[in-house]
Design a protein that fits this description.
The protein is about 80% helix and about 0% strand. The protein has one domain: Sodium/glucose cotransporter (Up-down Bundle). The protein has about 500 residues and is mainly α. This is Sodium/proline symporter. It catalyses: L-proline(in) + Na(+)(in) = L-proline(out) + Na(+)(out).
Length: about 500
C-alpha cells in the first residue's frame, strides 16, 4: 500500500503527535509521583476526558455499534447502565477518593491507599490488591493489543503478527517516555477525536439516506422490533446490563484519574464534562449501528464486510461516506479508543509492580530517578507479556475480559465505596470484601448456571462481608478515625 494513502498518512501524523506529547510530558516528569500520577495536577477538562477515554476502548466504536446493528435498540441498555454507574462513581467516590488518598500518606496507587487507609502492617491488602490488578490488567492489555492489531490488519492489509507489534509499539512508546501525564494528555486528544467521529458519522448516514423519516421507515421495513428497547430483554438480562455500571466503582484505571485531579474542587466540573462526553459518544455509537441498518439495507452491494462482521459497521460507513482524508481522521478515532485504554492499563500495571512490589518489598529507599526508570521498564515488561498472550488471538484468556470488569468491580468497588463513606470500616472488613467479591465472581461465572451477570452477586456479597466483618472487629484506631474525619471535612468544605 502506497505511503501516500490518505488513511496511512493520517494514522502516521496521529501516532507521531501522540509520541510528541509523550516527549513534552517527559520534560514535565520530575519524580515518580509525576510519572504514575502526574503530580496530582490534572485540571477538570483533562480529568474528565482522560477518565472517559481510558474507559471506553475499541468497544465504543466497534462492539456497541455492531451489537445495535444486529439487534436494534435493545442493545442500548448497557450504555444506559454505564452512564448511570459512571455518574454515581463521580458523585460518591471521585472527590472523596481524591482527599482520602492524600490524607492516607499521599497514596499513589489503590494498593498503597488500602494499606495506609487501614494501617495494614501485614501488607496483605497491598499484596492481594496488587496481584488482582496485575492478573486482570495483563489480560485487559492483551485484549487491547489484539484490538489494535485487528485495526491495522483490516485497515492496511498487514499480516496479524506485524500488525500486533505496530499497534503495541505505537502505544508503548509514549507511555514509556511520558508516563501518566503523557497518557492523560493523549487521552484528552483521543477523547476529542472519538466524540468527533461518533457525532459526525450518524449525521452523514442520515443525509445519505435522505432524511430521518426515510431512515426510520427503512428500519421499520427491515425489522420493526429494532425500535423496541425491550425486545428479547428479560428482567434478568435488564438487571445484568445495568449491572455493568457497578463496575465503575472498582476500575483502577478510572479511579486513578480521580486521585490525580489537581483538587477536590475541580471534581464537579469534571463530572459534568465527563458525563456529557459519555452520553454524546454512547448515543453516537448507538446511532451509528441503528442507522447503519437502514444504510446497508438500501445499499446491499456495500454490505459484504459488515455482513461478515457486524463490528465493522462504523469503519465501513466511514470509508464509504467520507472523503479518504476525512475517513482517515475518523478511523484514527478507532485507534484513539484502543490506544487510550491500553496506555492507562499499562501504566496501572507498571505502578503496581513499581510502587507496591519493588519499592514496598525490595528497595524501600530507592531514589525517585530509579523508581521512574523501573516504572518504564515495567511498562515494557507488561507490554511484552500482553503481546505474547495476544500472539494467539483465539486464546481463551482473551474471553476473560468481560468478567475482568466484573472482577475489578466486585473485588475493589465495595471496598473503595465504603472506605470513603464509612468510618467504621476495618482492615479485616476490607480484606473480606476484596476476597468475597473476587471469589464470588469466579464461582458464579464458572459453576452457577445463571444469566445474571456475576458482578451483581459479587458486589452484593462483598458489601455484606465488609459490613459484617467490620462490625465484628473492634473499632478502628483513633488515628484512622481522625484521618477519615479530616478527609471528609475537607471534601465537604470544597
Amino acid at each position: 500500500m502506497s505511503i501516500s494513502t490518505p488513511t496511512l498518512v493520517t494514522f502516521t501524523i496521529y501516532i507521531s503527535a501522540m509520541i510528541l506529547i509523550g516527549f513534552i510530558a517527559w520534560r514535565a516528569t520530575k519524580n515518580f509521583s509525576d510519572y504514575i500520577l502526574g503530580g496530582r495536577s490534572l485540571g477538570s477538562v483533562v480529568t474528565a476526558l482522560s477518565a472517559g477515554a481510558s474507559d471506553m476502548s475499541g468497544w465504543l466504536l466497534m462492539g456497541l455499534p455492531g451489537a445495535v446493528y444486529l439487534s436494534g435498540l435493545s442493545e442500548s441498555w448497557i450504555a444506559i447502565g454505564l452512564v448511570t454507574g459512571a455518574y454515581l462513581n463521580w458523585l460518591f467516590v471521585a472527590g472523596r477518593l481524591r482527599v482520602h488518598t492524600e490524607h492516607s500518606n499521599n497514596a499513589l496507587t489503590l494498593p498503597d491507599y488500602f494499606t495506609h487507609r487501614f494501617e495494614d502492617h501485614s501488607r496483605l491488602l497491598r499484596i492481594i490488591s496488587a496481584l488482582v490488578i496485575l492478573l486482570f490488567f495483563t489480560i485487559y492489555c492483551a485484549s487491547g493489543v489484539v484490538a489494535g492489531a485487528r485495526l491495522f490488519e483490516s485497515t492496511f492489509g498487514l499480516d496479524y503478527s506485524t500488525a500486533l507489534w505496530v499497534g503495541a509499539a505505537a502505544t508503548v512508546l509514549y507511555v514509556f517516555i511520558g508516563g501518566f501525564l503523557a497518557v492523560s494528555w493523549t487521552d484528552t486528544v483521543q477523547a476529542t477525536l472519538m466524540i468527533f467521529a461518533l457525532l459526525i458519522t450518524p449525521i452523514f448516514v442520515i443525509l445519505a439516506l435522505g432524511d430521518l423519516d426515510t431512515a426510520f421507515a427503512t428500519i421499520e421495513a427491515v425489522n420493526p422490533k429494532s425500535f423496541d428497547m425491550f425486545d428479547g430483554v428479560s428482567f434478568i438480562a435488564l438487571i445484568s446490563l445495568f449491572g455493568w455500571g457497578l463496575g465503575y466503582f472498582g476500575q483502577p484505571h478510572i479511579l486513578v484519574r480521580f486521585m490525580a485531579a489537581e483538587s477536590v474542587k475541580s471534581i464537579p466540573a469534571a463530572r459534568r464534562i465527563s458525563i456529557t462526553w459519555m452520553i454524546l459518544t454512547l448515543g453516537g455509537a448507538v446511532a451509528v449501528g441503528f442507522f447503519g441498518i437502514a444504510y446497508f439495507e438500501n445499499h446491499p452491494e456495500q454490505a459484504g464486510a459488515v455482513t461478515g462482521n457486524s463490528e465493522r459497521v462504523f469503519m465501513e460507513l466511514a470509508k464509504i461516506l467520507f472523503n479518504p482524508w476525512v475517513a482517515g481522521v475518523i478511523l484514527a478515532g478507532v485507534l484513539a479508543a484502543v490506544m487510550s485504554t491500553l496506555s492507562c492499563q499499562l501504566l496501572v500495571c507498571s505502578s503496581a509492580l513499581t510502587e507496591d512490589f519493588y519499592k514496598a518489598f525490595l528497595r524501600k529507599n530507592a531514589s525517585q530517578a530509579e523508581l521512574v526508570w523501573v516504572g518504564r521498564l515495567m511498562v515494557l515488561a507488561i507490554a511484552l507479556i500482553a503481546v505474547a498472550i495476544a500472539a494467539n488471538p483465539q486464546s481463551k484468556v482473551l474471553g476473560l475480559v468481560s468478567y475482568a470488569w466484573a472482577g475489578f468491580g466486585a473485588a475493589f468497588g465495595p471496598v473503595v465505596l465504603l472506605s470513603v463513606t464509612w468510618k467504621r470500616m476495618t482492615r479485616n472488613g476490607a480484606l473480606a470484601g476484596m476476597l468475597v467479591g473476587a471469589i464470588t465472581v469466579v464461582v458464579w461465572k464458572e459453576l452457577i448456571d445463571s444469566n445474571l451477570y456475576e458482578i451483581i452477586p459479587g458486589f452484593a456479597l462483598a458489601i455484606i462481608a465488609i459490613v459484617l466483618v467490620s462490625l465484628r472487629d473492634k473499632a478502628p484506631s483513633q488515628t484512622i478515625q481522625q484521618r477519615f474525619e479530616q478527609a471528609e471535612q475537607e471534601f465537604k468544605q470544597a
